[in-house]
Amino acid sequence: MKKVFLCAMCAAVLASCNNGAGKKEQALTEERDSLMQVISDKDSELNEIMGTVNEIQEGFRRINEAEGRITVNNGDVESEASKQSIRENMQFIQDAMAHNREMISQLKEKLRTSSINADKLKKMVDDLSAQLDAQNLKVQELEAQLAEKDIVIARQGEAITTLNENVNTLTAENQAKSQTVADQDKQIHTAWYVFGTKSELKEQKILQKGDVLKSGDFNKDYFTKVDIRYDKEIKLYSKSAKLLTNHPAGSYKLEKDNKGQYVLHITNPDTFWSVSKYLVIQVR
Predict the structure, then answer these.
(1) What DSSP state is assigned to residue 160?
(2) What is the pLDDT of residues 122-150, one digit of tens each?
């Protein structure tokens, strides 16, 4: 009987040990899987950030190429074909600069809400901003050279008849009117949006005592400007989002991407922005 009792006790102890070892192994497995998921998420986020950086750098490369295609011949009157080429390249540069400016702004916002805390990435974004500022100065100098070229051309044409001078005057007036119309059209289609945590919105006086944009002293520079004709998607980089400003139901959708983060899709821009040209979204 003693032998039987001892055997039973040993078996119970072994079973208890095995059970404990199994739970410990399961806990280690779950912890490992959790860490692998975190690493995978960070890799995906880093790849997305670096993809944006590469796109910005490619934009700078194409801007430099376009600048190289613009030549200003001292003292020579440019042909119409040459002038058209210069105008097209300048327009491309301006569009590319605007796109890079927007991409850098989005990258700054992405790093602000990112789980990746890398000083090197932030330094890289600061360098891109500095490069954009330097590029902007180069474009301004180029525009000044072209403006001076126009003056030279005008001086060379001083012998033009009065009729042609009148035509030039009318052309300039029409261009000014067209520019005014274009500026007014752009203003009509301009809107502003911002998203942030409750504390961030309060800090910028966008949210005060539960009310949004009730006073005029909120920080307008904290908003991002958009053209409502083209900007119809806003990534919020958060798993919690709530619109604080009033926008008609049915004119937008709040949907989650493959990371579970919300994206605002504006399905009917005219209706969406009809109540307010300011959009405020609280995230967490």
Answers:
(1) S
(2) 888 888 888 888 888 888 888 887 777 66
